[in-house]
Amino acid sequence: ILNVEQSPQSLHVQEGDSTNFTCSFPSSNFYALHWYRWETAKSPEALFVMTLNGDEKKKGRISATLNTKEGYSYLYIKGSQPEDSATYLCAFLSGGSYIPTFGRGTSLIVHP
Amino acid sequence: EAQVTQNPRYLITVTGKKLTVTCSQNMNHEYMSWYRQDPGLGLRQIYYSMNVEVTDKGDVPEGYKVSRKEKRNFPLILESPSPNQTSLYFCASSPGTYNEQFFGPGTRLTVL
């Protein structure tokens, strides 16, 4: 089983703060990295699918970058709002394997 | 509305009593999979299916069976449930193996 690490495990910020967290994955045999947002009592929803080294994706105030050579991806939230409170998951897919490896997630709580 | 549905949403059962959790998607997706979520761990894939009559083991298949007789349905079968299968289960579908996944609402299973 591949090692996918997310840090920090949890994060408390104030409304309006910008924040970022990390997903680390094996740097060899990379195929794709997915980011999901998982709100309490709901199911995970996809944010980004990233496939190329140097990829940058943006959706509103949330953006993500990808470095496949060193094996990490950053997720940034600009001007956090209470509705951004959720667990953010990354999932690593390697070439030739159809089984995504999920990290344990970063739990973000944004205080009003 | 495009969606993945699961039933039941909650289930309490006893050791050894066979049960089935149904999963259905209306997006004509080829790829479907089952995950379990346990405290402190990332989502772990149980089984996946790349198309009708094509299924394969994920990372934690022991104690589970699946079938894919129709494209839209992918039931999860526990022939003889045990307490260590108490977990939160998610079904997911996607257009292809490496695409973003669409998750069902989850099934919380307790085996006494």
Structure description:
The complex is a heterodimer of chains A (112) and B (112). Chain A is mainly beta. Chain A is built from no helices and 11 strands. In chain A, the strands form 2 sheets. In chain A, strands 2, 4, 5, 9, 10 and 11 form a 6-stranded mixed β-sheet that branches. In chain A, strands 1-3-8-7-6 form a 5-stranded antiparallel β-sheet, with no helix packed on it. In chain A, a hairpin with a 4-residue loop joins strand 7 (62-67) and strand 8. Chain A is globular. In chain B, the strands form 2 sheets. In chain B, strands 2, 4, 5, 6, 9, 10 and 11 form a 7-stranded mixed β-sheet that branches. In chain B, strand 4 and strand 5 form a beta hairpin. The radius of gyration of chain B is 13 Å and the shape is globular. The interface between A and B is medium-sized, with 23 and 24 residues.
Break the fold down into its secondary structure elements and pairings:
The complex is a heterodimer of chains A (112) and B (112).
Chain A: E1 5-7, E2 10-14, E3 19-24, E4 30-38, E5 45-50, E6 56-59, E7 62-67, E8 72-77, E9 86-94, E10 101-102, E11 106-111
Parallel strand pairs in A: 2-11
Antiparallel strand pairs in A: 1-3, 3-8, 4-5, 4-9, 6-7, 7-8, 9-10, 9-11
Chain B: E1 4-7, E2 10-13, E3 19-25, E4 31-37, E5 44-51, E6 54-57, E7 65-66, E8 76-78, E9 87-94, E10 102-103, E11 107-111
Parallel strand pairs in B: 2-11
Antiparallel strand pairs in B: 1-3, 3-8, 4-5, 4-9, 5-6, 7-8, 9-10, 9-11
Task: Briefly summarize what is shown.
Chain A is an all-beta fold and 112 residues long. Chain A has strands spanning 5-7, 10-14, 19-24, 30-38, 45-50, 56-59, 62-67, 72-77, 86-94, 101-102, 106-111. In chain B, 0% of the residues lie in helices and 48% in strands.
